[in-house]
Amino acid sequence: MASDAITDKLENQKRPGLAGPELAPSLLREDEPVLPRTLGMIGAALLIFGGMALTFNLVGWPVAVRTGWAIFALAVGLAGLLFHAAFDRDISVRRLYLLFAVVILAFGVVLCLIPYPNSMGDQFRNGVPCLLVALLFLIAFLRNEDEAFVRDVTQRGLLVGGGIMALVGLFGGSIRSDFFLPIGLVYSLLGLLYLVAFVGTRGISDDLAYFIAIGLGGIGLLVILISLGRSFLTADGSTFFVTSGSILLFVGLLYLFIGAGLALDWPLFILTRRELGAFFFSPIAYLTMLGFSVLSWFSYIAFLDNIFDPITPPIEPIVRTYLFALFPVFVVICIVPILTMRLLSEEQRSGTLEVLLTAPVDESTIVLSKFLAALITYLIVWLPFGLYLLAIPLSGGKPFDYRPLLSFSVALIATGASFVSMGVFFSSLTRNQIASGVLTFAGMIALTYIYFAAHQTRDTAWQTVLTHMSYLDLWYNTLEGKIVPRFLLFPLSLTIVFLFMTIKVLESRKWR
Amino acid sequence: MIQVENLTKYFGPVCAVNNVSFHVEKNEIVGLLGNNGAGKTTVMRILTTFLPASSGVARVAGFDVMMDSMEVRRRVGYLPESVPLYSEMRVSEYLDYRAKLKGVERRQRPSRIAYCIEVCRLQGVQRRLLGTLSKGYRQRVGLADAMLNDPPVLILDEPTDGLDPEQKQETLKLLRELGNSHTVMLSSHLLTEVESLVQRVIIIRRGVVGLARKLSELETDPIIVVEVRGPVEQVKSLLESTEGVQQVQVVSQEDGIVGCEIRTIADKDLRENISIRLGRNGLALRRLDLRRKRLHDRWNEINNTDVTQLSSEQLTRWGGPVMAGS
To answer: pTM above 0.95?
Structure first.
């Protein structure tokens, strides 16, 4: 790179007696990315292994590794490579990953478009994962690329690709319901992700990115109007709303909210975006997601053994046995402290809290933004669980009742809010991350123990009280498809109390 | 622009800032000087609303730091001592984020950020991660951040700390330019560094203001410096007998050259008289100079005073032109 001498004038002068311009102040050399390289290597090995096993399985050659495990190896391998791509800034490495991403992208596009074996869209199911993986690698590449031109071209590629997918998905889906489910829906979501990546990597100060973000909100609004209009003004409105209208409405809302979240410069949104960025630019998010997907894989295997048990066939809702099990609970207990321990402790330890609190933002905005960002990450971490569920009809060949998942997601958000707010509170107490993590962990154990206490006590009054407090009971209820508002009361009030206390902890420096 | 009255701050039983009062006018560059642990950072943290005062009043840009803290924050650019930064962000990303947070309008943002990057000479590191920057660059990123929304008041805690001499000069030059249209308050524990820059000095020691005056008011009490070739006794007696001379102090004698410092009665310039007298007596004059009493001497006086021994009456007298012990 160019020299970093003290003044421009000195930089441009060829000073006699010196070999080159002075280089002080030195730029610190970055650490050798040893861990990313190791993980990348393991990832590459697993990718090749999984890819070969999958190919052999598809072709029909008998191999010991079956399709499920091949896909698992493939997924873990890709995660390792992605980790490497995200943290190795070396120019040859990052350009290699750009090439990798472009190849996968092209492969995905071809799969989505070729009319094989019968018509266009038959290979859609295989093409979409390729598009998603390519996006992840492109984001990792954009994070590391220094050359403005290459960045710009890549970003515009994201814009064009995302725009096409979003428009095809949304408006194709608005016109024809049979296209919207599932192809249009997937396209519109994937397009949204591409566009968010475009806006996110470019920054909202850029005019184009800003207008795209506004445009996302506008399209969302339009789609909401279309879906509502078709549902309530046309003759067959009620059938449209039930089949695809409601989902179209949901997608429209998603576009609207994400567009607004990206475009608006309210302090709460600015801080939340930075916080989310901090999550995904640090190894924590990748490692927790990797750990979570591995654990949920084992959970899924156990679940498959369970539901395909020929002696005692499962009864609906079968998703209950999937989510109401040892693994998910164990993972939640561990993951909440990992996600939240850093939030305010790190700011206090490094002193950035001082910079933050002397900028024109108040304490409640700061606390809320931390809370929101952690909650969003918590929900994203659950995604692998949901993705494996999509595979159940593939493995078993039979569709299952997905509706309990809708009520469960309400419970997941409510209980997640209470967990995360507890974590935020504990991280505000100490500047030591470990201490805050351990406190949160203890809190999670205590909240989990309420379930066992509720089921052990004989006193019915206590039992009623404890059942209302136990998040596991709430999960169990919602997984049966019931949403009982009074059970949501405890997690929500817990959230409010913890957030209030956190704000007071931050403000307390003014009382001392 | 900045008014501080009877500001006191206790950290538990420790009194970090004790009854500090001073004021700073608009577009003035003021140096807050003191040794490490004198209470400079605490005063600045109170002025930037990060910490509350235990008692006393501080106003910045006309707003009370306790009551109208948001208004103060909008008008102050603050560079904290150790320049804490988010290590996972890139320089341009960070400045963009800070500009948004400080409410720089979207249309002006790119040009404003580009301007700050240019004047702080960060062009070469825009895409670097903050965690990989050296101390000098971190300092400059912090300075660029403080300037982003073009606040009328800049409060900079040791802006030259960790920079090499050339960078220090550049930074001081930048601050001098900024001083034309901004009120700049900077702290330092190195007096010589900021002496040429600041228009007003506030010297604090152990939380007590030792001096808070404009430099232009300070530079009185001249000393005449002479170097003469000749015998010591003759030179000394000759100088002492000159009318208006109060005290002659021989500071050096080498190779037959005598160096003396002369203090005069009242504020008289005796240089011409001295040169005539020396010439008449056949003594060769090598140097004749009028030196103002420098800030440095004040600094030494303040830092050699044992604050704990002063009575409260004497403490309140501090800040006036007459120093305890001078």
So the answer is: no
